[in-house]
Amino acid sequence: MKMPEQGRAWQDIQSDMIKRGAGDAKWRDGRTAVYVFNAGEEIAAIQKEAYAAFMSENGLGPLAFPSLAQMEKDVISMGLGLLHGPEGSTGAMTSGGTDSITMAIKTARDFARADGRARERSNIVLPQSAHLAFDKAAHLMDIEVRRVALKTDGTFEADSSAMGEACDDDTIMMVGSAPNFPHGIIDPIEALGEIAKQKGVWLHVDACVGGYFAPFARMNGVPVPAFDFDVPAVHSMSADLHKYGYAAKGASTVLFRSEELFKHMPFDMNQWSGAPMKTPTLAGTRPGGAISAAWAVMNHLGIEGYKRLQGQVCATRERVEEGVKRLGFEVLGNPMLGLIAFRHPDHHAFAIYGEIYRRGWFTSVTKEPPSLHLMLSPKHADFIEEYLADLEASLRAVEASADAEKLKVEARYS
Question: Pairing relation of β-strands 144-148 and 123-127?
Answer without folding.
Answer: parallel
